[in-house]
Design brief:
Blueprint: E1 2-6, H1 10-21, E2 25-29, E3 52-54, H2 61-81, E4 86-87, E5 91-96, H3 100-111, E6 117-119, H4 121-127, E7 137-142, E8 147-149, H5 151-165, E9 168-170, E10 174-180, E11 183-188, E12 191-195, E13 197-200, H6 207-210, E14 217-228, H7 230-235, E15 241-244, E16 253-259, E17 265-270, E18 276-278, H8 281-289, H9 296-307, E19 315-325, E20 332-335, E21 340-344, H10 354-365
Parallel strand pairs: 1-2, 1-13, 2-9, 5-15, 13-21
Antiparallel strand pairs: 3-8, 4-8, 5-7, 6-7, 10-11, 11-12, 14-17, 14-18, 14-19, 15-16, 16-17, 20-21
The structure holds flavin-adenine dinucleotide (FAD).
Length: 378
């Protein structure tokens, strides 16, 4: 049987690797990162970055389970590819003691038997002197199995390990498909190709291939990267990832100093005050080519100052990205027919656990059933 995975992003590259390891004949079809985002006319990916927080703690059991399964395999993927993508610097969740968000974290840590160190405000100040927290703040620190990954390097690692295991990679776009009795014909730039079964892992560009068959909303995100001089980066060398559990709004999250392909070191704060709904593929492409929402970077800079008032910022860069949400906040691990399957809908949290989402996609496309803990996504 001939299998195809469409989309060489985080989930698709993982799915293809798992399928090759299972001995299947698999072709992964999808382009790499464009050289120039502003002039690119094709599809984009949500992994063109160097920092994504990873952690086991997640209030939703599905995501926690998928994340922990993936984190447990990071070492195996690094060893098979020779590419490092994981920094186990830990992840700190901090917020007002007694708030419902902090109580939920304690419940989740107990539910999943995750080891988290507890810090009161004074202990937070001693252990993480570069952060500032308001009176009454406390923290839970997941020191092991948490930190950050480079999504770019993870995709490269999955591709390298996948190709070594037998994945054939075709770096081009699929512009459409026909699901017929004799197989699924994919329309690729190099011509039509027929497969017995196909897994779509096309992220924010899924509607171009499957329309609105599955409900999913794609939102534009504006991200600000703050450049640091080398000495400032060295001062923050022990900084973990931080998620501030804001009682009044979405949680801003902060990544520690990370070196980017331009050779510079940046810290990143993620927070978007506004959900920018992108209605179709043309909107999503235009968003990736844009400068994001004007003014958001100033708001983000004010928020980073709240948490890191002494941070010496040497420069600022704004980048755009998209996240795809399903109505129940779970991915679509679905069968669209006997031959066509999906692994889409990362709900803003599917970098860290993409290896397990890819594995689950590989299970369904090859005729297997989702495990009990994951059936709600099917
Ligand atoms: C600003 C931001 C911050 C985030 N922070 C975190 C975080 O801290 N932790 C975390 O776990 N997650 C985080 N996420 C979420 C995470 O990055 C996404 O959930 C993840 O990238 C989804 O993976 P994917 O494989 O579905 O999509 P992608 O990685 O976007 O891959 C989809 C791939 O499909 C390809 N494709 C699309 N259409 C076609 C086609 N027709 N033919 C061929 N190929 C096609 C694209 O080129 C792309 O490579 C963040 C996301 C954003 C935007």
């Amino acid at each position: 049987m001939k299998y195809a995975v469409i989309g060489a992003g985080l989930i698709g590259s993982a799915a293809a690797r798992h399928m090759a390891l299972a001995g299947l004949d698999v072709t992964l079809i999808g382009p790499g990162e464009p050289a120039d985002l502003r002039s690119h006319a094709g599809v984009f990916g949500s992994h063109y970055d160097e920092g994504r927080i990873t952690r086991g703690l997640d209030p939703m059991p599905f995501w926690s389970r998928a994340s922990r399964a993936s984190i447990a395999r990071y070492g195996e993927i690094e060893a098979a590819s020779g590419i490092r993508f994981y920094s186990e610097v830990g992840c700190l969740m901090a917020g007002p003691e007694g708030s419902s968000k902090m109580a939920a974290i304690d419940e989740v840590a107990a539910r999943d038997a995750l080891s988290c160190e507890y810090f009161d405000r004074d202990a937070l100040a001693r252990r993480f002197p570069y952060f500032a927290f308001p009176d009454g703040a406390t923290g839970r620190f997941e020191a092991v199995g948490a930190g950050h990954i480079s999504p770019r390097s993870l995709v490269r690692a999955q591709l390298t390990a996948g190709v070594a295991a037998g994945v054939q990679h075709l770096a081009e776009e699929v512009t459409g498909f026909d699901d017929g009795p004799d197989g699924v014909t994919l329309h690729c730039a190099s011509g039509p190709r027929v497969f017995d079964r196909v897994l779509m892992a096309t992220g924010g560009f899924s509607d171009a291939l499957i329309g609105s068959v599955l409900p999913m909303e794609v939102y534009g995100r504006t991200v600000a990267l703050f450049e640091l001089e080398e000495a400032e980066a060295a001062r923050l060398a022990s900084m973990p990832s931080l998620i501030w559990q804001d009682p009044d709004r979405d949680n801003p999250y902060l990544l520690p100093p990370i070196r980017y392909p331009d050779g510079k070191v940046y810290v990143k704060l993620g927070y978007d005050p506004e959900d920018i709904l992108l209605r179709d593929t043309a909107d999503v492409k235009a968003w990736f080519r844009s400068e994001g929402t004007p003014g958001v970077a100033d708001q983000i800079e004010a928020m980073i100052r709240d948490r890191m008032p002494d941070l010496a910022i040497a420069g600022r860069r704004v980048v755009t990205c998209v996240t795809s949400y399903t109505p129940n906040q779970l991915p679509h691990l679905k069968a669209l027919s006997d031959r066509v399957f999906t692994a889409i809908g990362g709900c803003g949290r599917a970098a860290k656990n993409s290896d397990e989402l890819g594995r689950l996609g590989a299970v369904i496309v090859s005729g297997g059933a989702l495990p009990d803990w994951a059936v709600e996504a099917g």
